[in-house]
Amino acid sequence: MKNLLAEFKEFINRGNVIDMAVGIIIGAAFTAIVTSLTDNIINPFIKLITGGNGTDVAGLTIPVPGTENGIDFGAFISAIINFLIVAWVVFLMVKAFNKMKDAGAKKLVRRNGKNEEIIEHAPTCPFCLEEINVGATRCPHCTAELPAPAEMTVEVVEK
Questions:
Q1: Does the pLDDT of residue 55 top 60, yes or no?
Q2: Which of 100, 154, 155, 153 is nearest to 131 (CA)?
Q3: CA distance 131 to 133
Q4: Which one-letter DSSP state was computed for residue 143?
């Protein structure tokens, strides 16, 4: 039981858990904004186009006898629009994060005897293409066994 609690403590103390929690909170707040956008701007526009009376979208709601509510295709379309907007923004955020991560990648620049610029790149796993430590014999990301210990790669920049 102590081992399980120690593992749980280690899991909670990782930065990834904190980052994930912040992401969930920001995502919930952003979802509220997108829901407001669809409920207050996009849905009224759909009602205007389809001739709705302000309370439902005409032609997009099928009444069900014996119930107060019917089958509401307008709400379904609204949920799809919400999802697409949130998915698009998340895609753009991940794309921007990856671009910043690539821009900040470890590149050591120096000059050789011919005064050519040399850039040293951190080693990457040939299987999953993730960055690994110099001298590693197994990838910490995909756990593949490397054919040889990882080494820095050198690139000569010609100007």
A1: no
A2: 153
A3: 7
A4: -
